[in-house]
Design a protein that fits this description.
heterodimer; A: 114 residues; mainly beta; seven-stranded mixed beta sheet; four-stranded antiparallel beta sheet; B: 112 residues; five-stranded mixed beta sheet; 9 strands; 46% strand
Chain lengths: 114, 112
């Protein structure tokens, strides 16, 4: 079956702009989580959506937001970009319920802020 | 969330077994031990998880100490493709959510 798809794979923005990243989960998965990966901070949890509702949230400023659609696809948005937002943004999908908790990650969207 | 401690890096020779340790002295009774790995230029991928008993799957084995304060991921025959960052993560049994707390992990280098 198809894996987790993230678009775009690479993008360059300038400070002050905003960006929207998209994630299509594995078919049947209802949970989508977002992570930020930087060399200094490693992998950090941003937020999780389950059945169109935010279920968990990490310690990031309000400039970072997300949403999930009825087909489980998710988007995350970063407004007023700062240089420190340059990172690899990873999306992970899972069933979100039941005994299996395995997360399936996409290849990520690499954001560069100039 | 309970923390895990892993060595920053390890080396192995190709086709030899690799034992990747993880300490989790503050683990609670409801925490599962999960392992993920991240190959270069890819997102993390699930490797294995367990609660109390040792676990085996096609990728690896997980050996869990009797007191559950430590565990070891075992790759039976390392290949060059196993070179990656390995993360040991604790996850509450009731927390079947998408939130994982990643540490710095262990960077495994495999030499031919």
């Amino acid at each position: 079956k198809a894996g987790v798809t993230q678009t775009p794979r690479y993008l360059i923005k300038t400070r002050g702009q905003q960006v929207t990243l998209s994630c299509s989960p594995i078919s049947g998965h209802r949970s989508v989580s977002w992570y930020q990966q930087t060399p200094g901070q490693g992998l950090q949890f941003l937020f999780e959506y389950f059945s169109e509702t935010q279920r968990n949230k990490g310690n990031f400023p309000g400039r970072f937001s997300g949403r999930q659609f009825s087909n489980s696809r998710s988007e995350m948005n970063v407004s007023t970009l700062e240089l420190g937002d340059s990172a690899l943004y990873l999306c992970a999908s899972s069933l979100g319920s039941g005994n299996t908790g395995e997360l399936f990650f996409g290849e990520g969207s690499r954001l560069t802020v100039l | 969330d309970a923390k895990t401690t892993q060595p920053n890096s390890m080396e192995s020779n190709e086709e030899e077994p690799v034992h990747l340790p993880c300490n989790h002295s503050t683990i609670s009774g409801t925490d599962y031990i999960h392992w993920y790995r991240q190959l270069p230029s890819q997102g993390p991928e699930y490797v294995i998880h367990g609660l109390t008993s040792n676990v085996n799957n096609r990728m690896a084995s997980l050996a869990i100490a009797e007191d559950r304060k430590s565990s070891t991921l075992i790759l039976h025959r390392a290949t060059l493709r196993d070179a990656a960052v390995y993360y040991c993560i604790l996850r509450d049994v009731g927390g079947n959510t998408g939130k994982l707390i990643f540490g710095q992990g262990t960077t495994l280098q495999v030499k031919p």
